[in-house]
């Protein structure tokens, strides 16, 4: 019985690792996206000061041990299985939200 379960798990793992393995260099793009995007007036996209809070450099330094622990837990629970780039992205989003007045405490 254990041999059968081991064999079954092994076959399952081999099968799941080969799924979409040939499609790693292809990106799906909707054909309707350029048509839809051309219909959007550019006046709607020119919102003044909508990005001013997020383009500033982050001068926030985590010196408090509780803040550092909170930040590390946030990064871990949001992106534990992600790559280093994913973890850095989560940290950047968190720092942007801390700095922005659009996200209250």
Low-confidence stretches: none
**CA-to-CA gap between the ends?**
55 Å
For the secondary structure, the number of strands is 0
Using the CA coordinates, give the radius of gyration. Answer: 22 Å
Please state the average pLDDT score.
Answer: 71
Given helix and strand content, the structural type is mainly alpha
Query: How much helicity do the residues have?
Result: 55-70%
How many individual helices?
6
What percent strand?
Answer: under 5%
Shape: flat
User: What is the N-to-C order of secondary-structure elements (H for helix, E for strand)?
Assistant: HHHHHH
Main sheet attributes: strand count, strand direction, barrel closure: none
Kindly list the characteristics that best describe this protein:
105 residues, mainly alpha, 6 helices
Can you lay out the helices and strands and say which pair or pack?
Layout: H1 2-17, H2 33-39, H3 42-45, H4 52-55, H5 65-79, H6 84-99
Helix pairs in contact: 5-6
